[in-house]
Fold this protein.
Amino acid sequence: MSTLSISTAKDVFDLLRDDLEAVEREFRSQSASEVDVVTDIANYLIAGGGKRIRPMLLLLSAKALGSKSPSRVRLGAVVEMLHTATLVHDDIIDDAAIRRGRPSSNTTWGNAKCVLAGDWLYMQAFAAALEERNFHVLDLLISLTQQMVEGELLQMQKLGHLINEEEYFDLIYRKTAYLFKVSMQLGAAITPANPLLEDQLGEYGRNLGLAFQIVDDVLDLTASEDVLGKPVASDLREGKATLAVIHALERGTGAEREAIRTVLFDRSFSRVPHAEILEILSRHGSLDYAMDTACAYAEAARLSVADLPESAAKAALLWMPGFVTSRDR
């Protein structure tokens, strides 16, 4: 592989292999507790895998700026621990039974133990970050936590209600894109760099995170359960209106809008089948609209890093938006 040639996920993993393996070891080490149930839950979550996109972004950000700081491994583990803790809490809030094709942790250990294990992972992530002795790193992580918690609370307030696009983008920025943004900023924060570069890399993370969540929301509507690893149309069952649904609501007939409202209110497909909702979305081009919007954010992410010095890390950052918008899970 040429030093600047990135065309597959394997190329990115090969570029980051040693660092990602070190992040995984650090994650396991930081997740070990004297209380067995905490370690058991953490190990179960780690074994569930995941794309590790957030630590990958941090590593690519640091590498694109020429950083060789060992902090990149510790902070890569920190962002994945924070992400994992939010998944535990999300599964409890959403009463989810499946995560990544396996029983969610709360179905095995119960909500009470899992909410506390999630809290423990959160605090352990901050304990690890504190070892950096870097106030800017802590500022970024504190702001991240506030945004994610506020996003979850706002979403809970809006469940079963109609929202507009502005409200939708505010929610997905807080709940998803802000972590992508901070992951990129942390790569710069541990590297002596121009503050403008940190903003530039943060903008890449923000745009990529928005694209990622929009695609996630489309897949929730259209993918099969076997591919997705969880029940399809979970968002509608939970009363969440995502971008394609909002688009159809703004353009549909009275009967079509009423059908969508019924599903959001009932939080089930007992009165209106899933297939009917998909027909409404297809009729108005709503799924295409959402994917086109995701692709626009993906392109904005590419433009954010276009003037970085040429490197394999930059090539990977330029490749990543295409991966995010073309994935099937």
Strands lie at 98-99, 102-103. Residues 89 and 292 are 31 Å apart (CA to CA). The chain has one domain: 9-326.
